[in-house]
Each structure stands twice: as structure tokens, then as C-alpha cells.
């Protein structure tokens, strides 16, 4: 088990290292130095306050220090939590801007991931048992999982918010409210949260339902299922085993899907103007705010790596094979 | 062998999640049987079942219909997809089938051009990802040892790296000008689960009798992979490509929607971007934003359904279900 | 008479028609008898052994019947058959290595299985532990996951579990093929011991390995291309076989202890006929050195000597 975790952590650290390096490398070696261009433009509109930005730039991308020095400086700044200063929200530091947005993204992602995984697995397992349910769940599941996240968001926003008027169309909370610990504000938060959550939930749900349905069918063909059948075990018992065993690959699937789910959250936020990382990224792109964009990238990578690690821990808890140290589980 | 077989399936299965849809688990036991059967008959059998499988035929018809639409329809227009040709914001009519945008652009023409881009990016992106994934998987699984360790590490890193985030950074800095270059980047970041599944399969195939025989007869590694191992996984590889195709299409739509798509090329994602940007939702111009998403869902969904059908065709155990 | 099989025909449904994998088998297995069942791949021996406990979805019972201890065995009816499985007919599968649910502790799995069959785990546990002792497994294995057991241990575990309810008939399907030679010996001896202690009344041991089954079996039945070829006491089959196929089979064994090849008999040229549309008459005649005109008629499976049945015109 220790080996299993050591291996996982090594991969995650290495991935983080690769991500940071890419993040430094790409702007550094782009023709025309787009970051410098961005700074020049900003210094025209904001000549006095540009000094700290210039300093950061010179430190990690500038030409007056050797390359290796720039790279090390980049790491040094990063480890101190300094990712530069946002151009779009000048003079707010990138880290601060991102930390303000992260709770909104997490509030969308965590419930939609957990609930869709849970519900999808339940429904998928039921579908594998009943023909009529299979005939409805299967096409519906495939349709949902083939739907682009932003389109389902668009359809929900248009139908339920604009036409039916049941939910607000855009924002994280009502424009006439200030963030506070009041019931009114909380209520507004929930109302604005529901549609983006629902769009994420629906698409992911389809994928899990199909995945579980297909996995169970394979599990029911497994040797242990055949043996139990030969010993006259009732279908109920065999299905229970199959469900539990099928959950393991579904858990691995969850880890693999994280990137796609995050991507889904980003575009969903854009459709609903939800103040999370997705909208931040859109704004960063539109305002050519490269520091902000790169900061958001690193935050996403860190988030995905942490989530992967959490899933690894859960995996060890549910799969005795990793616990006994006999095999590596889901590599 | 008996220890490897379940491991192989287990590795293949999580690949499932990779594209939100279960990648088919390869029936490992089918290996020797399949090998013993003459290839021609196997192909004939598969074709026979495929043409009788409702899912394969239905999915195939939808995909081909869209492909034909994308290829042929633009030929009938003498104006471009971004030209202001009609009345502004008018609903579907005999002249403009899907209505017009707030600028008077023909939505149907944009739609069919978008279908073209969709197929192109799916074909190229999915194809490239399949090529990289299979090459790495075959080499890692067949050669083993240190090469395997290194490739496995690489695979795992790319696997946990959130691909879209990397693509956003790349696209922002580099700027994409054509669908093929978009497909190139998508392909480079969506192969890892394929490599993993193919590696596991190759691992279990490489110790089979017929591979040993080929090795003894002096066949080179490349030839063994091409002529002995790959054909035994051909059905699996084909289904993998379909999943990658769908994945690329969805990826491209996401990038196009954020506004990082190729410049000057119409795509379904860009249509949705424009619609949202110019308040089509608030203005109620449903004909502008419904078709592009519906088109993607129909194409990708049909591909997935086709895949389920193919799984039943190649995997006789499932035919009874 | 423990088991009586009467003109049993079980076909596989395929695209090109029915594969006549088991085409009319009539034989008996006596109380206390261990019968070895031998034949090449595709001889019908797996089809026969499977149909006695569970037909898979592609198999179809065409004709014939099976009686166990004088009662008809409803092999064509999955649900009715369930009452007999485990309690009357049981199986040690070929895939014993992967027969146990990998994510359940063995003891828990057994208790859940027994509970589902209406047997109290607590009541049977002392007997279970005695039998574990008997096969040399520590009682702690019940608290282990299957992956913590070696191949041989899993094999013994399955052996104990399959016979726990003292079935009348046990089908052991290629039980030794995945094991090394010394473990094979031990497993084979345990089978005999279980019979001697009357944990099971009679046994069918399906095998590729005549030399191994010869050491434990009372009788051996040889199948060829979906038909019975010969059934006789083990030493008669090995020392004085009457069917030309059995003769070739035995003579192609270089010596006791060496297995013959899985797919093809080195010593017998040609290959068995396809079973989609098998030729009329004796199915071995194309490869048979003794074939003559009459072989176009199908030879009946008749008793030529006491307890010695052969399907060959030359043997009568």
C-alpha cells in the first residue's frame, strides 16, 4: 500500500512539475513576446502603477537574467504564492482574484460530480436489470453524454430562465445584493447556482449511467458470477457483487473524467455568467491578461491533482486488493 | 496468463471513463479462438452481424446523413457563411431554412459549414490520438522493461494533466488558424487512456502461441505488432477510434465556444459562442443556438450508439442481452 | 445408480445453424464411481459436463433426459434446476483461480451464498473448518481475500466450497490443468479422499490428461466429435481399449505422466469433422485405420463386455 501511494504521489508531483514548466516555457518562447506586449499596452493606460508588474516580468521572463535563473525565480515566486498581477483587474494580485472565484467553481463541481456519480451508478445498475429501463436509460444516457456542456446550459438558461422565468439567467447572486451572511443572500446564491449545477449534473449523469450499465454486464460474465450461478446463487446476490465490483472501474473513471468535468464547468459558467474560474478565464482571454490565465491554469492543475489523490485514497478503502499490497490496483 | 487476463480487462475498463462512455472491454478469451479462425470468415461474420444490428445501422445512417449534408450542402450557396445576406433576426423560412442571425447571416449555411469542421476535427484529432495512443501502447506492452516504465510514466502524466486547461494556454499563446492545427493539439492531449488500454491488451497477447511462433520464425518486433497483435485487436481499436472521434468533436466545440477556435472557420461551437455573445437567448432567436448543439449531440450520440452495437457484434456474449 | 443420462443432445446455436456439440449420449455413473471424461477440444466433453449443471445462454437442450438418484434432473429449466445446484449437483470449474469474488472475504462470501440457499452458516461452519483442516488450509483463510491465496490454495478452497453440501454428483472440469505437477497430484488425491469420505457420491472428472485421471478414476469415458466412443473401467481403457480412437489416443501417450497436446493428437493424422453438419455414420471413420464399408452406418454404443461400452463395428 505504501508503494502504491508513493508511486501515485510521485506521478502527481512530476505532473505538477511538468505543468509549471510548461506554464513558464510557453510564454517565454512565444515569438513576439506576447506578455511584454500586454505589459506595454497596460503601461500606456496605467503608467504609474506598472512598476511591480515589470519587476515580476523581468524576474521570470525578462532578458536581463540568464534562462535558468528566470526559471528558478519563477518557482520561487510561485512557491510564495505570487503569480503576478492581473491586468484586467489591475492592481489585484492574480492569486487573490483566483481565490475569490474558486469557491464558486467548487460549489458547482463538487455537488454535481458526487451526485451525478451516485445517481448515475444507481440508475445504470437498475438499467442492466430491467429491459424496459435499459431501453430508455441507454438512449437517454448516450444522448446526454454526447451533449456539449455549453449547449445543455444554453438550453436550460433559455427554457427555464428566460422563457419560464423560474430561475435567474446570469450571475452568482442578485445584482442588487452585497455578499453577506443573510438568508436573502443565501437564497439568491442557491437560485443562481441551481441551473449551472443542473447542466453539469445532467451531462455527467448520462456518462456514469452508461458506464455502470456496461460494466455490470461485463461483471455478470465474470468467472465468479458463473461459479455462483452454477452453485444456484440467486440473481440478487450475484448482481450485488457485480455492482460492487463495477464500482471500482467507475471510481477510476471518475479520476479520468476530472479534466473533462472541469472543462464542462468552465463553459457552463461562461453561459450563466457565473463568477467562477471559467468566467475568469474567458475574461483573461478577452483582455489578454496572460498572468491571470496562467494562474488559473495552475490552480486547475493543482485542483485536479488533489482530487486524484482523494480518489486514490477512496480506492484503497474500497478495493481490498490494493490494501493487501498484492497488486497496484488501478495503476 | 490466467493472472494477466483479468488485469487486462480491469485496465481496459477504466478507459471507459476516459471519454464518458465505456470503452469496450476486450473479451480476452476470444483471442485464441479468433486466432484459430480464418480472418476472412471473421470479417464476413462481423459484417453479417453489423448489418443486422439496429444500433450499428441506425447510428451509421445518422452519421452518414450528417456527413453528406456537410459535404454537399455548402456547394449550393454562392455566398459565404459570414456574409450578411438576409433580413436580420428572422425565423426559419422557405428561403432561410434555419433563419438568420442578428446580422442577417444564414444560420443553415453556418450550420452545414460547422458540420464540415466537426467531421474534420473528429477525423484528424481522433485519428492522431488513436495513432499516438496505439503506438505508445503497443511499444510499451510489447517491449516492456525500461521502455515500458518510461512510456507508462509519460502516459500517466498526460493522463492526469487536465487537457482542456493546457489547450487553453496553448491556443491563447499560439493562436489557431485552421481546423487541422486545432485537431493536432487535441490529438496530442487525448491519447493516454488509449495507450493504457492497448498496452494492457498487448501485454496479454504477446505471450500467446501465435506471437511466439512469429518471433521464432524471425519476424521483427514492428512486423509482429503490425501483423500479429494489431489484427487481433482490430475490432477494439476501431471502437476506440470512434470514441476518440466523439471526444475530439466535444473538445473542439468547447474550445470554439470559449473563442479559441480557428479564425475564419465556421464551427458549431463558434455558432453557439456568437449566439450567446450577441444575446440570442434574451432575444429568443432559438433557431440560432439550438441547431449547432443538436447537431453535435446527434453526431456524437449516433457514434456512441454505433459503438454499443459494434461491441455486440464483436463480442458474441453480449448478443444475447 | 447415481446418474443416468439418456440419449442427451445439446446443441449450440450459431449463426450458421446448430453446432451438434453433444449428439446423443447414453451412459450411467454408479454410486461411488469416479468417472474420467476424456477427449480432444470439441469432443463434446465440456458440453456434456456443463449441461449437467448449467446450460449457458447459447446452449439448447434438444432431446434426452438426465436422472439423478432416480429423480429427473430438469436441466433444460434454469429456475427449476437451481434447487438441485450445489445441493445435488455441484461443480469445480476450470477457472477455479478466478472463481471467488475478488472483493469479498472468502468466509463472508460463503456465508452469503449459503444464506441465499437457505443454509445457516453458523451451523455448517464447524464442518467447513474440519474440511479446511482436511485439505491443509488454515482456518484463517476465511478472513482472507482470494488474492491473498496462492493458486493451489484457491483450488482447494473451491474444492471444499463446492462439496460443502455433500452433493450427489460433482463435476470437476479440468481441475488440474492450471497447476504444477505436484499440486496436481495433491488435488487428484483429495478428490478421491472426498469420495471415500462420502462428501460426494459420484464424480465426473473432465480432463485432457488421461495419465492423471487413470490414477484416480474407476472408469474412463472417451468422447469423439460429440459422440461417446468408449466407456470402461480405467485399467481396461488404458490397457485393452477396443475403440480404434481410444487405441490411438493411448498409444500416442509416450508414458504415464506425460500429457498429450491440447489441440491435436500428434499420432493421429487428420482432424475431427465439423459439428455443424457432421457426416452420417461413424464420425471417426475418415481418420480411422480400420474403417470399412459398414462405417457409413452409425455404430451404436453397446456393452461388449461387462461394464465395457464401445461404439465401433469392429469391436462387436
CATH topology of chain B: MetI-like fold
**What structural class do helix, strand and pairing data of chain B support?**
mainly alpha
Gross CATH architecture of the domain at 94-322 in chain A? Orthogonal Bundle
Q: State the helical fraction of chain B.
A: over 70%
State the name of the first-level CATH class of chain B.
Mainly Alpha
The major pleated sheet of chain B works out as:
none
Mind describing the biggest β-sheet of chain A?
none
- The computed structural class of chain A is mainly alpha
Write the layout of secondary structure elements.
The complex is a heterotrimer of chains A (331), B (321) and C (316).
Chain A: H1 2-28, H2 34-45, H3 51-60, H4 67-79, H5 94-127, H6 131-146, H7 149-163, H8 183-219, H9 223-230, H10 235-272, H11 277-286, H12 290-318, H13 320-323
Chain B: H1 4-18, H2 30-36, H3 39-52, H4 54-72, H5 107-143, H6 145-160, H7 163-174, H8 179-189, H9 192-205, H10 209-216, H11 221-232, H12 234-258, H13 268-277, H14 280-283, H15 286-314, H16 316-319
Helix pairs in contact in B: 1-9, 3-15, 4-5, 4-15, 5-6, 5-8, 5-9, 5-12, 5-13, 5-15, 6-9, 7-8, 10-11, 12-13, 12-15, 13-15
Chain C: E1 3-14, E2 17-29, E3 34-38, H1 45-51, E4 59-68, E5 71-72, H2 78-82, E6 89-92, H3 106-116, H4 121-134, H5 151-162, E7 169-173, H6 181-196, E8 202-207, H7 210-216, E9 219-224, E10 227-233, H8 234-239, H9 244-251, E11 302-305, E12 308-310
Parallel strand pairs in C: 3-8, 3-9, 6-7, 7-8
Antiparallel strand pairs in C: 1-2, 1-4, 4-5, 9-10, 10-12, 11-12
Helix pairs in contact in C: 6-7
Amino acid at each position: 500500500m505504501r508503494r502504491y501511494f508513493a508511486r501515485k504521489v510521485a506521478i502527481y508531483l512530476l505532473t505538477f512539475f511538468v505543468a509549471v514548466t510548461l506554464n513558464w516555457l510557453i510564454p517565454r518562447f512565444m515569438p513576439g513576446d506576447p506578455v511584454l506586449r500586454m505589459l506595454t499596452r497596460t503601461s500606456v493606460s496605467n503608467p504609474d502603477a506598472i512598476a511591480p508588474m515589470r519587476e515580476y516580468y523581468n524576474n521570470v521572463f525578462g532578458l536581463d537574467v540568464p534562462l535558468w535563473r528566470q526559471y528558478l525565480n519563477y518557482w520561487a515566486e510561485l512557491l510564495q504564492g505570487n503569480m503576478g498581477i492581473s491586468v484586467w483587474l489591475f492592481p489585484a494580485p492574480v492569486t487573490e482574484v483566483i481565490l475569490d472565484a474558486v469557491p464558486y467553481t467548487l460549489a458547482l463541481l463538487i455537488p454535481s460530480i458526487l451526485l451525478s456519480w451516485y445517481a448515475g451508478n444507481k440508475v445504470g445498475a437498475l438499467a442492466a436489470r430491467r429491459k424496459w429501463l435499459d431501453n430508455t436509460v441507454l438512449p437517454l444516457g448516450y444522448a446526454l453524454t454526447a451533449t456539449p456542456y455549453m449547449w445543455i446550459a444554453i438550453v436550460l438558461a433559455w427554457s427555464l430562465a428566460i422563457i419560464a422565468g423560474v430561475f435567474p439567467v446570469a450571475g452568482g447572486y442578485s445584482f442588487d445584493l452585497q455578499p453577506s451572511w443573510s438568508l436573502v443572500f443565501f437564497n439568491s446564491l442557491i437560485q443562481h447556482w441551481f441551473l449551472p449545477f443542473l447542466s453539469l449534473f445532467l451531462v455527467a449523469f448520462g456518462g456514469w449511467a452508461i458506464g455502470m450499465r456496461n460494466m455490470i454486464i461485463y461483471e455478470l460474465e465474470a468467472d465468479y458470477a458463473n461459479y455462483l450461478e452454477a452453485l444456484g446463487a440467486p440473481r440478487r446476490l450475484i448482481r450485488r457483487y457485480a455492482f460492487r465490483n463495477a464500482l471500482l472501474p467507475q471510481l477510476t473513471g471518475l479520476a479520468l473524467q476530472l479534466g473533462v468535468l472541469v472543462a464542462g464547468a468552465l463553459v457552463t459558467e461562461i453561459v450563466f455568467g457565473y463568477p467562477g474560474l471559467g468566467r475568469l478565464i474567458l475574461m483573461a482571454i478577452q483582455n489578454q491578461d496572460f498572468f491571470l490565465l496562467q494562474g488559473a491554469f495552475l490552480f486547475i492543475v493543482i485542483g485536479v491533482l488533489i482530487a486524484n489523490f482523494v480518489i486514490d485514497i477512496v480506492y484503497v478503502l474500497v478495493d481490498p486488493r490494493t490494501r493487501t499490497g498484492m497488486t497496484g490496483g488501478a495503476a | 496468463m490466467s493472472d494477466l487476463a483479468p488485469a487486462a480487462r480491469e485496465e481496459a475498463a477504466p478507459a471507459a471513463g476516459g471519454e464518458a462512455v465505456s470503452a469496450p472491454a476486450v473479451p480476452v478469451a476470444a483471442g485464441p479462438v479468433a486466432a484459430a479462425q480464418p480472418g476472412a470468415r471473421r470479417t464476413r461474420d462481423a459484417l453479417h452481424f453489423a448489418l443486422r444490428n439496429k444500433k450499428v445501422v441506425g447510428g451509421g445512417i445518422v452519421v452518414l446523413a450528417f456527413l453528406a449534408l456537410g459535404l454537399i450542402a455548402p456547394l449550393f450557396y454562392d455566398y459565404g457563411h459570414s456574409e450578411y445576406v438576409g433580413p436580420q433576426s428572422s425565423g426559419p423560412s422557405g428561403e432561410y431554412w434555419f433563419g438568420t442571425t442578428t446580422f442577417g447571416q444564414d444560420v443553415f449555411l453556418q450550420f452545414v459549414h460547422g458540420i464540415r469542421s466537426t467531421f474534420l476535427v473528429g477525423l484528424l484529432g481522433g485519428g492522431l490520438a488513436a495513432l499516438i495512443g496505439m503506438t505508445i501502447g503497443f511499444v510499451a506492452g510489447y517491449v516492456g522493461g525500461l521502455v515500458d516504465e518510461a512510456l507508462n510514466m509519460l502516459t500517466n502524466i498526460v493522463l492526469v494533466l487536465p487537457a482542456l486547461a493546457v489547450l487553453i494556454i496553448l491556443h491563447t499563446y499560439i493562436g489557431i488558424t485552421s481546423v487541422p492545427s486545432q485537431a493536432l493539439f487535441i490529438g496530442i492531449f487525448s491519447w493516454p487512456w488509449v495507450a493504457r488500454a492497448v498496452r494492457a491488451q498487448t501485454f496479454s497477447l504477446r505471450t500467446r502461441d501465435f506471437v511466439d511462433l512469429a518471433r521464432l520464425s524471425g519476424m521483427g518486433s514492428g512486423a509482429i505488432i503490425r501483423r500479429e497483435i494489431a489484427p487481433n485487436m482490430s475490432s477494439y481499436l476501431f471502437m476506440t477510434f470512434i470514441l476518440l472521434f466523439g471526444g475530439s468533436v466535444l473538445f473542439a466545440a468547447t474550445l470554439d465556444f470559449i473563442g479559441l477556435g480557428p479564425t475564419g472557420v465556421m464551427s458549431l461551437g463558434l455558432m453557439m459562442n456568437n449566439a450567446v455573445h450577441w444575446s440570442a437567448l434574451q432575444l429568443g432567436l432559438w433557431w440560432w443556438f439550438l441547431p449547432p448543439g443538436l447537431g453535435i449531440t446527434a453526431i456524437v450520440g449516433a457514434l456512441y450508439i454505433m459503438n454499443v452495437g459494434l461491441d455486440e457484434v464483436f463480442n458474441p456474449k453480449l448478443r444475447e442481452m | 445408480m447415481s446418474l443416468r443420462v439418456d440419449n442427451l443432445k445439446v446443441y449450440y446455436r450459431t449463426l450458421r445453424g446448430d453446432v451438434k456439440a453433444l449428439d446423443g449420449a447414453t451412459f450411467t455413473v454408479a454410486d461411488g464411481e469416479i468417472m474420467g471424461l476424456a477427449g480432444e477440444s470439441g469432443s463434446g466433453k465440456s458440453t456434456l459436463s456443463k449441461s449437467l449443471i448449467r446450460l449457458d445462454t447459447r446452449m439448447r437442450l434438444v432431446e434426452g433426459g438426465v436422472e439423478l438418484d432416480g429423480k429427473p434432473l430438469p436441466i433444460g429449466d434454469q429456475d427449476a434446476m437451481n434447487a438441485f445446484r450445489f445441493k445435488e449437483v455441484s461443480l469445480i470449474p476450470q477457472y477455479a483461480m478466478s472463481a471467488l469474488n475478488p472483493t469479498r472475504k472468502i468466509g463472508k462470501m460463503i456465508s452469503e451464498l449459503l444464506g441465499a440457499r437457505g443454509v445457516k452458516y453458523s451451523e455448517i461452519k464447524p464442518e467447513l473448518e474440519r474440511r479446511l483442516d482436511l485439505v491443509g488450509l488454515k482456518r484463517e483463510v476465511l478472513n482472507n481475500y482470494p488474492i491473498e491465496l496462492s493458486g493451489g490454495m484457491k483450488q482447494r478452497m473451491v474444492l471444499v466450497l463446492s462439496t460443502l453440501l455433500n452433493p450427489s454428483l460433482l463435476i470437476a472440469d479440468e481441475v488440474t490443468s492450471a497447476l504444477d505437477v505436484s499440486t496436481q497430484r495433491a488435488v487428484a488425491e483429495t478428490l478421491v479422499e472426498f469420495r471415500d469420505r462420502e462428501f460426494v457420491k459420484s464424480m465426473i472428472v473432465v480432463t485432457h490428461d488421461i495419465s492423471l485421471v487413470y490414477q484416480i478414476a474407476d472408469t474412463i469415458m472417451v468422447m469423439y466429435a460429440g459422440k461417446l466412443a468408449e466407456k470402461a473401467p480405467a485399467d481396461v481403457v488404458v490397457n485393452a481399449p477396443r475403440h480404434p480412437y481410444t487405441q490411438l489416443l493411448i498409444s500416442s501417450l509416450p508414458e504415464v505422466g506425460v500429457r498429450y497436446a491440447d489441440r491435436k493428437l500428434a499420432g493421429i493424422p487428420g482432424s475431427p469433422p465439423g459439428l455443424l453438419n457432421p457426416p452420417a455414420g461413424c464420425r471417426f471413420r475418415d481418420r480411422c485405420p480400420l474403417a470399412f464399408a459398414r462405417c457409413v452406418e452409425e455404430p451404436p454404443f453397446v456393452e461388449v463386455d461387462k461394464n465395457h461400452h464401445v461404439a465401433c463395428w469392429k469391436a462387436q
